[in-house]
Amino acid sequence: MAAPGGSSVLFVCLGNICRSPIAEAVFRKMATDSGVVDKWVIDSGATSDWNIGSVPDARGLACLRKHGIETDHRAQQVTKDDFMTFDHILCMDESNLRDLNKKANSIKNSKAKIELLGSYDPEKQLIIQDPYYGSDKDFETVYEQCVRCCKAFLEQHS
């Protein structure tokens, strides 16, 4: 699943209401600002089924808004098809990575390259911690990590 001559990326965290919707929104804005959004299929999902249909955490939405970014994403769980259609699946922590690799191993035609989004961070912060039980400052930290990582990822894959 890619736009003609393009690529596709799925951002994943545990619940798809904090970290991955922020990453998706940040990447979409970067791709738009760079004039390459038409070359990308961009989405996000959860390893769990806890929040399906929910809007992102209000603190995450407020953080994005502060940076001039909007999202209308609704939480969804990663599906088998995602492993066969997305080129890249970028997740936030070791637990996401384990869950995704386990699912991918049970799918014959899995083509997605599964990586930690933090592996693209020039500041080498490998793990993007869940801010759910934290403060607004923790959401801001997630946002900043996503900006650094998405920028590096987009530069490497444009």
From TrEMBL:
Provide this UniProt record's keywords sorted from A to Z. Answer: Cytoplasm, Hydrolase, Protein phosphatase
Its catalytic activity?
A: a phosphate monoester + H2O = an alcohol + phosphate; O-phospho-L-tyrosyl-[protein] + H2O = L-tyrosyl-[protein] + phosphate
Q: Which Gene3D superfamilies match?
A: 3.40.50.2300
One of its Pfam families is LMWPc
Q: What class of enzyme is it?
A: hydrolase
Which InterPro entries does the entry link to?
Answer: LMW_PTPase, Ptyr_pPase, Ptyr_pPase_sf, Tyr_Pase_low_mol_wt_mml, Tyr_phospatase_low_mol_wt
Tell me the domain of life. Answer: Eukaryota
Q: Which GO terms describe its cellular component?
A: cytoplasm
The record's subcellular locations are: Cytoplasm
Enzyme active site:
C13 (nucleophile), R19, D130 (proton donor)
The UniProt function text for this chain reads: Acts on tyrosine phosphorylated proteins, low-MW aryl phosphates and natural and synthetic acyl phosphates.
Which family does this protein fall into? Belongs to the low molecular weight phosphotyrosine protein phosphatase family.
Give the protein's recorded name: Low molecular weight phosphotyrosine protein phosphatase
